[in-house]
Amino acid sequence: MSRRPNGRAIKKHRSYTVDEAARALKASKGTVRRWVKNGLPALTDQRPALIMGSELIAFLDGRKKKSQPCQLHQAFCFSCHAPRDPAFADVEVRPLTTTGGMMRALCGRCATVMHKRLSLARMPELRALVTVSIVQGDERIGESRSPCPNDHLETMR
């Protein structure tokens, strides 16, 4: 899996050679040269070619993927790489705390399970958009009425 270069390592008011930019971004020199070919502004009429830090930062920021916000009834599908409506307009909500919970639904396009955090205060809005099923969470061990007895601990004493 490829790693995205961290533009924070670049100083705005400094100029970089291809080698220095590659070392600062922990990328290969070939990658930086390819960026120059694909539109990264650089002073290439001299040797070594110089890249302005501000232009390198702007180039890297332009390559970032834009965020894709989900609407209340949608969740982000990691298979489709996009916010998707739930299949059959049906979601499950599992309350985790008194104020929030987890929404779970199937993707309407590829049937992958999607998850999303949800504020329980927004449940009336959600119910107006989709069918909501409330699922009770599992009991925690400390809250259970009949804890699991560890008989083997008694015999080891």
Could you explain how this protein is built, in words?
The chain is of the alpha+beta class and 157 residues long. The protein has two domains: 10-63, Arc Repressor Mutant, subunit A (Orthogonal Bundle), CATH 1.10.10; 75-137, Nucleotidyltransferase, domain 5 (2-Layer Sandwich). The protein is built from five helices and eight strands; from the N terminus they run E-H-H-E-H-E-E-E-E-E-H-E-H. It has helices spanning 18-25, 29-37, 53-63, 123-129, 151-155; strands at 15-17, 50-52, 75-77, 82-84, 90-95, 100-106, 113-119, 131-134. The strands form three sheets. It has a four-stranded mixed sheet, covered by helices on one side. The protein has a two-stranded antiparallel ribbon with strand order 1-2. The protein has a two-stranded antiparallel ribbon with strand order 3-4. It starts with 14 loop residues before the first strand and ends with a helix. The model has no long low-confidence stretch (mean pLDDT 89).
What global shape is seen?
elongated
Q: Ends: how far apart?
A: 52 Å
What strand order characterises the main sheet? 7-6-5-8
CATH class annotation of the largest domain: Alpha Beta
- Helicity level: 25-40%
Low-confidence sequence ranges: none
**Overall CATH architecture of the largest domain:** 2-Layer Sandwich
Number of strands: 8
Mean pLDDT: 89
